[in-house]
Each structure stands twice: as C-alpha cells, then as structure tokens.
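#structure-requests
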Amino acid sequence: MGLIWLAAIAVLVLLVLWWAFPLTARILGVLVVLDSLGAIVLFPDRAIPYRVWWLLAGFVLWLAGHWAWAAKHGIWASRIALRIFQLPGLRHLIPRSTLLPPPGPTT
C-alpha cells in the first residue's frame, strides 16, 4: 500500500506542476529579475557579485515558463519570448507544437 501511495502522490505532484509551472515560472522569474535589478541599482557595491547570477536565474526561469507554455498550448504567450527564442542559440529549443499549423476545419 505504501508504494502505491507514493506513486499516486508523485503523479499528483507532476500533474500540478504541469498545470501550474508555466504561469508560476513566468511570474517568479519576473519577480526575481525585478528584485535583482533593484538591488543592483540601489546597492551596487554589495549586489554586483552575486545578484547578477540571480538576474540570470530569473531570466532563465522566465524563459522556461514561456517554453513550457508554448509546448503545452502550441502558441507563445508573448512576442518577446518568441523573439528571444528566435535568436541563433535558442532557435533549436523552440517547441515543435508552435511550428505546426493550428488545427482547424479542413475543406
């Protein structure tokens, strides 16, 4: 019974993450970026060494949320994310579901 319970909890956690991750990651990414930028602007002598890494982490989290949204829904949530993912290094990470034409009536 314990192993089935653990498997059920794991599946439930994965389903909740799949449902909530895109929006949560985008919001948390923006908040981390804003916090890091504010710390760098207000306290540059104390913030520069380590806040730059938080700034990068927030940006990556924001991009991961946009990627998950695009993979899940087949469309991009913002044009900014689409433009960033069209850069030469990130172009290969574009989800295939966004490249396919949307399903519609065939006539």
